[in-house]
Design brief:
alpha/beta; Rossmann fold; three-stranded mixed β-sheet
Amino acid sequence: MISMNTFMYKNVLVTGGAGFVGSHLVEELLKRNTAVVVVDNNCNKKSYLFTEKLNKKIKVSKMNICNYKKLLLLIDEFKIDFIFHLAAQALVEEAYNNPKRTLDNNIMSTINVLEAVRTNPRIKGVVVASSDKAYGDLLKKKYKESDPLVGAHPYEVSKSATDLISTSYFKTYGTPVVVTRFGNIYGEGDLHFSRIIPGIMESLVKKKKFKIRSNGKYIRSYLYVKDVVNGYILLAENIAKIKGEAFNFGSNNTVSVVEMIKLIQKMLNKKIEYKIVNSAKSEIPYQALDYTKIKTTLGWYNKYTLKDVIPVIYQWYKKIL
């Protein structure tokens, strides 16, 4: 059960807080009278953080947390009590083209955050954002938390390493850390237009053809961003009894790219012109998560469906594009 009081008047750091998911997490934390500090090295003014004017209610620091000394100074200055670590290079295609940057960024930022928590008793916990990509390609219907982490390509490996390093800090030092593994997250605020739902929305608003990077048959589970945020908060509220563990979060909205296009066409009653480019590299053809553990442990389930939120998402993209 989520308590509204856990973060009241606490100082919470959100790394990557100007990003898509981070912005929505900030919004939810503010409802709890939390003093939020965001650190991000890319503060896009079209970010949900800025379009919804959340930035005016928090402290935003433009900084790369791979700089350990600067991170420690920021944590000390704002007397941070809890950290949500979401900062990452989050694009598979970018990881293929720039593997060193992705591995440096995703692995070192996680080490720095965990080391800061290990050496600072004031910080009561850290939620680390991983991904279903940490499992790699397991060739099974649904991945469970007990499955091995066998990422093969740069982005996957960066997430496998993030997971393993996080649990290592718990097992070795008792660091209060919990790991999240989400499927494909969607919602208003995602500015990565190479992704399917932002790409579709851009094509509709700008009346241009949507280019599908894959063969159109890749299957993913889609989870709405506010369900994701609810998951983060729930883990943080219960970290004392679940530290050292990892949790999958998923949904029953498991469809292919072409199926998603057809669903959105029907929901919005709009024709989507698309072209299959089939240029994707290092992508896993099928991924879905078994999220029984989080349902039975903490009672989490996804409350939103595509039908509920696609019209809202479309209106947001119309506004910013």
